[in-house]
Amino acid sequence: MESLYAITTGVLTACGLYLILRSRTFPVVVGLTLLSYAVNLFLFSMGGLTTDGAALVDGAGDYADPLPQALVLTAIVIGFAMTAFVVILAMRARSEAGNDHVDGRKHEAGEGRR
Amino acid sequence: MSSHLIVLPVVLPLVAGILLLFQRQGSVRVKRLIGTGATLALLLVGIALVARAAGGEVTYYALGDWQPPFGIVLVLDRLSALMVLLTAVLAVGAVVFACAGDDERGSNFHGLFQWQLMGINGAFLTGDLFNLFVFFEVLLLASYALLLHGGGKERIMSGVHYVVLNLAGSSLFLIAVGILYGATGTLNMADMSTRLATLPAEREGLVVAGGLMLLVVFGLKAAILPLYFWLPKAYAAAPAPVAALFAIMTKVGIYAILRVYSLVFGEAAGPLANLEQAWVWWLSLGTLVAAAIGVLAARDLRLLVAYLVLVSVGTLLAGIGIGTPAAVSALLYYLIHTTLITGGLFLLAEMIGAQRGQAGTRLVKGRPLRQGGWLAVLFFAGAIAVAGMPPLSGAIGKALLLAAAEGMERAWLWPILLLSGLAAIIALSRAGSTLFWRSTGEADGQRLAHRQWFGVAWLMAAAPLLVVLAGPLVNYTDATAAQLASPESLTRALLNTEGDAP
After folding, report:
1. Do A86 and B148 lie within an 8 Å CB cutoff?
2. Is A24 within a domain?
3. B433 touching A, CB under 8 A?
4. Residues spanned by the domain of A20
5. pTM
6. Per-residue pLDDT tens digits for B394-429
7. Is position A81 within any domain?
8. Residue A54: inside a domain, yes or no?
9. B495 within 8 A of B69, measured Cβ to Cβ
10. Measured between CB atoms, which of A43, A78, A97 is closest to B178?
């Protein structure tokens, strides 16, 4: 369970980081989304993974740490709003600059200028 | 009422922002009245907070009456009170300036402005690491929208960089907070500092990783050397009142570094104490060098001021890097000075640009200024203050910092800081002579509004006032530095049951 969880978070983070470093705005936005998923998963596990426990304190039995759940809810809400904002911003940038390069350039540096 | 005083800097802008949202389509006059009124009220609250904190007592406000370390607390000590008051003073100048017409270039300027104030004040007051993240997001969300206020290609393109970088920074912040919570089991900063003292050795690596990741996040906000590339473009593109308010944003990063590393990773943390010191010291020197080169290379007055903000970031960080109470006191004095003066210079750049026709703020030959005399006087005063020449406030701040450096630090800091000052003098004198003397054609600019004059004069007045009031002010910053150096008083006030929670 732990290793599966760790590998999932790691792969999501790596993909997110790779996409953020791309030069077009769409992959960057997708990368930010993936990264925020990875972060949410990570936050969820920060109090230690509890398997077969109650989500809330329920009598004497095993229970999961409730604080990360509250935090991850906050992080999801904020992340969602931010993603919406950055999508709109990317579209505005696309219409203002005439292309979807993050620097507003027409071509990659290697391709030469128009 | 007085027990709720601590939460007012957060609640007041929040309520004002909501009122302004209702008035979104309403008359300009009402919006300006609410915006300015709320900011002035914030100024009064800030003064009351400083008066309350000046005695040295640490008080806290437990939200929902959940006592620390379980609930979220807002903590008032000398440092947070000072920062809230500084924000309010800066905001008054910026909001009055905006009332001259900048606020109507887009929608809902005043509402966003108030929410940004709420985020900044919250970040200064909170005593909880996750809450710090939330307030960072509040101030960032408002700043994204404010940066784009008025639109235009320049703003949108610099906005993309700013937003994407800060979103990545926020993710990193969450990861760091998660690691620290996992390792210590608490998010309250005071509680975390006591738990670090008894940390099992095998978790030390985790805490170091978390702590240094926080430094990266705060470094991104404060614009330290490898993380500052977003700043000059964004600040130069932002509308003038917004750029002026942004002058405090880098200081939020500085404040967070100061707070987290003095409280959580203070002397009590044992082997983890002063985790950041070595990094911050060398990066601050690097920032100073890079910023000085930027100052010399800038071809636009706004860009020049943006690089001057970076110089101030480097100077402030050097104070943190030295880390003695004397250096912290000096950096707090310099922080007040630089925030107000660079804010004023952003406003002044807008006024100069408005009278030069096509040339705008670019440092090329343009039309002569219609009200050049007064603008030149203000520019001259601002340039002397920001470059750190006597008799204005920058000189005292720099002298205090130079005096605080000892031994090898002195050998590094003195030449770099003084040369960066020289670079500022060269660049500003070149900019001034181009703007005011090299001109052709007829002056045809609009006369500037009184509100704009008031905004600039309000902020620039800090330069002589900080000199006149240097005595009491340095006493206050000395006391603040002493309080920061002994975080036990804060920990004791928070974690014992006696506090004046409502």
Report:
1. no
2. yes
3. no
4. 2-49+62-105
5. 0.92
6. 899 999 999 998 888 889 999 999 999 999 999 999
7. yes
8. no
9. yes
10. A43
